[in-house]
Design brief:
alpha+beta; Glutaredoxin; 6 helices
């Protein structure tokens, strides 16, 4: 399992863009994690699934609400990771009014989740292999803080906790 001090897994995530710009075409675009994290401080949070109750009602809204505070604390980007496809993540970004505040990144095949060792098997609930709920602060590709939730919990991966760590 990934730990503080480790380099984040270098794999490809996908991001949906509705408009062309900054080298991105319309539609799902690959995001090379190594290149995207290089030289940046990134607030990363991951969750089991788009449009799920806790994720939609609590997790994403906290990061949307505190996006400016993260920037003021020196965070260059906020990433939300979920084992969904890029189209779902794009729709969820619209629904959560996250565009321009959070990069909603699809880990469609759970490659990133598996590489971190932070998976959640929800096969019995018909959802397959998912990401565990967590947050981490990443500086130049290395984990500087990590907050992993217990099963069914939402206590330590919230925006306020990670923001306090970014400010420290």
């Amino acid at each position: 399992m990934i730990q503080v001090g480790d380099t984040i897994p270098y794999c490809t995530l996908y991001e949906y863009s509705e408009v062309e710009g900054e080298g991105c075409s319309i539609g799902p675009n690959p995001v090379d994690v190594a290149k995207a994290a290089a030289g940046k401080t990134i607030a990363v949070f991951a969750l089991p699934g788009a449009f799920t109750p806790t994720c939609s009602a609590k997790h994403v809204p906290g990061f949307v609400e505190h996006a400016h505070a993260f920037a003021a604390a020196g965070v260059d980007e906020i990433w939300c990771l979920s084992v969904n496809d890029a189209f779902v993540m794009g729709a969820w970004a619209r629904d959560q009014k996250a565009n321009g505040k959070i990069r909603m990144l699809a880990d469609g095949s759970a490659d990133f989740a598996q590489a971190t060792g932070l998976t959640l098997d929800l096969t019995a609930r018909g959802m397959g292999l998912r990401s565990n709920r967590y947050s981490m602060l990443v500086k130049n590709g290395k984990v500087s803080s990590l907050n992993i939730e217990g099963p069914g919990k939402f206590e330590v991966s919230d925006a306020a906790t990670l923001l306090a760590q970014a400010r420290a």
